[in-house]
Structure prediction request, 343 residues.
Amino acid sequence: MNFTADQIAVQVRGEVFGDGSVQLTGFACAAEAHAGDLAFAESEAHFAAAEHSRASAILVTGPFQSATKVLIRVPNARVAMARVLPLFFPPEHLPAGIDPSAVVADFAQIDPTAHVGPHCVVGARVRLGARSVLTGGNHIAHDCQIGEDVCLFPNVVVYAQTQIGNRVSIHAGSVIGSDGYGYVFDEGRHRKLLQLGHVVIHDDVEIGANVAIDRGALGATVIGQGTKIDNLVHLAHNVVLGQHCLILGQVGFAGSTHLGDYSVVASQSGIAGHLEIGRQVTVGAKSGVMRNIPDGGKVLGIPAAPDRQAKRQMIAVQQLPELIHRVRELEREVERLKVLPAG
Prediction:
């Protein structure tokens, strides 16, 4: 689709400097931009590259000026980019209907506007809402409730009684509602504790590829509204994530931990079970969280400690070789003094 710079400015609440009628046909980074493309710049280096590119216009933050490019100035170029990209790259639209290879159980309710792709299995009493999409190879077990404008990418598996809200995206290979990891030691062996709960995913959640979310042992595992989960994340039974959280790749949550709204857990962190982690908490990458964290806390390290304390510890560890060397020199000096004659 084509848009003028003026039309783009309206969409991003920006101001045009230059010819507002210039036609824009795409969005690209400076290195790959062609005539008609809109580029992006939020730093001097980005702007210099974009100004020397073939792009017709630049989306900018800050007091940049150009004699050769149309500028669309906005308060936050990255936010504006997020608003612009769907205009140039709208999501694929799949036609309503059920593929002949799909298997749909009796009493399943599929909205007439929904799309059920090849080799999907839809269990009894499943409800699939308006404009929702099962792209292919999806298995939806009995009694699941899936809202409107949901997209399940290929080979997503949804276990029984899962509840998924509206405008949720779940990427390929993820498994929602599998058994929680519950065992008790009995008479010399590990006896399984049946996992009888379910999963609740609220509106506007996005879940990456190959994510595993276990159903509750009793009750629900819950993902709050607007939360975004990266690839290769594991949530154990009865974990509760608040609203608008960010969970980065390869994070693991042990069972029954609660995470407050607007919190961020960075990549490869491990969160122990039965913890209360507050609102607006930040957990740094590769952290091992073993204790509760209050609202607004920032932690880092293994075991995770308040970030300033953890950074001081890291600096101290880097100084250990020099400290060891100095201690050994002092020990040698003490031994030398011991053998000197008295007086």
In short: The chain has three domains: 3-88, 156-303, 315-343. The chain has a mean pLDDT of 95. The CA atoms of residues 208 and 231 lie 4 Å apart. The longest strand covers residues 37-41.
